[in-house]
Amino acid sequence: MDALTSWINLKRNEFKKKDHDLEDLEMQVVRYKPEGLDVLCRKSKFTRKELQIMYRGFKQECPTGIVNEETFKEIYAQFFPQGDSSAYAHYVFNTFDHDRNGSLSFEEFVMGLSVLSRGTLQERLQWAFNLYDINGDGFITKDEMTDIVSAIYEMMGRFSEPMIDENTAKEHVDRVFLKMDINRDGVITFDEFMETCRRDENITKGMAIFDTVL
């Protein structure tokens, strides 16, 4: 009976937590006022028709009008079933979530997708730098680069060519970091990142992986 009582209490607490989470979510939805399509047309690189189609799809996946990180990861996983995309999705979510409130509005979703799918090389490289600069301090450390590269390899799974292990990821990071850390101070600045990408075609081509975000 003790085990059964404990289980009942556990479920009761879970339901209470879900109710509390639902109340928080409802409050967010009440406050959420999507911008007009004309405004998003001006801000993004999508047409009004494209935005209408995207919004219908967005609302179908996320009826509340906002996406939390777990839902974002679930959506991501559908596109990368061959590997574990959860870590990479976490980092991408953070680059989309500009106000750092733990959820994505349709506007944030559209603006992030606009840069990745139709942004200029400059815009996409800026996005990539922000992705690697995990703590947002304006520098990329070797540990940060390792975290992102490892997340990409985990996401690509068995379709990575050649097959990748932990040592391969480390060697890749060591090689790229050495190229980018031009003044050898142990961190990569935005200027160093941009300069290296512009003069190294192989690195620039590597940015194509970001086209597969969604």
From TrEMBL:
CDD domains: EFh. Residues 84-119, 120-155, 168-203 form the EF-hand domain. It comes from the Eukaryota. Keywords: Calcium, Metal-binding, Repeat. PANTHER family: CALCIUM BINDING PROTEINS, EF-HAND DOMAIN-CONTAINING PROTEIN. It comes from Crassostrea virginica (Eastern oyster). Belongs to the recoverin family. The gene is LOC111101212. The lineage of its organism: Eukaryota, Metazoa, Spiralia, Lophotrochozoa, Mollusca. This is Kv channel-interacting protein 4-like isoform X18. GO terms for molecular function: calcium ion binding. Pfam families: EF-hand_6 (PF13405), EF-hand_7 (PF13499).
